[in-house]
Amino acid sequence: MALTLPRSLSPSKVSSFKDCALAFRFSVIDRLPEPASPHAVKGTLVHSALEGLFWENGPGGRTPEAARASLAAAWEELQEDPEFLELELADDQRQAFLADAEGLVAGYFRLEDPNAVTTVGVELLLEAEVGGLLLRGIIDRLDVTPEGEFIVVDYKTGRVPSEMQEQSRLGGVQFYALLCEQVLGRRPVSVRLLYLKEPIVIAADPSEQALRGLRQRTAAVWSAIERACEDEDFRPKPSGLCNWCNFQSLCPAFGGDPALASALSAELHGAPA
Ligand code: SF4
Fold first, then answer.
1. Per-residue pLDDT tens for 227-245?
2. Which residues line ligand 1 (CB under 6 A)?
3. Sign of CA dihedral 4, 20, 170, 154
4. DSSP-derived secondary structure for 236-258
5. Which of 241, 234, 224, 230 shows the shortest CA–CA distance to 261?
6. Given 109, 126, 183, 203, which residue has the most CB atoms within 10 angstroms?
7. What is the mean pLDDT of the chain?
């Protein structure tokens, strides 16, 4: 029996298939639960604070004080969030968690003046069909230049990648440029990754040629996913990423049995139609 194809993919899921097809299957096809990650939860908190800074304040009002108020409101909301609660942080860990988030928000103001940019949307959900595949992604912020050109902005709360990883990260963000072109009809002139920790900006100007190549590669990845589902053949690809993989116990590279994933998935989500 063939495995059920996902209905849509996000750019991060496309790159997760390339990193390891088997981990992709466990996460996207079998939808096995993964433990909450402090880094991901902190990233959500900081993104919410910056979203509020732009959403609640017009040019002139986007000050560090306004950002701190936005972070305080997002922190308040986070107290009820199931993923945050799952972290079970002790009091001192909660204080350190919040202090880290405050440092990241402060880092943002060292990268740009939010009052000097014209923003047309924050946390924009974009969906487009690319090569027969429904691709969807959320753009952290979409700016427009005085000439009316779009700029895609993505906040990063992790470390700045090495030079080799940089191209792959930018490749991921080019997906957002592609989505923007497909949905809004215009290719952005720039994609900017704002690394809040360092703080550093990495920018790229997506060319027509780069996006054409990306469309072809996306179609090829989708064909590979279709084949893997049809043949039920998702292979492990051991690498340094295994150290952070939540599925080692099911992975044959670590002595696990991937067949157990289907049973676990059926138990959690019911048998596929
Ligand atoms: S442990 Fe490594 S090889 Fe196995 S599924 Fe995870 S990432 Fe893939």
1. 999 999 999 999 999 999 9
2. 20, 22-23, 236-238, 241-242, 245, 247-248, 251, 253-254
3. positive
4. ---SGGGGG-TTGGG-GGGT--T
5. 234
6. 126
7. 91
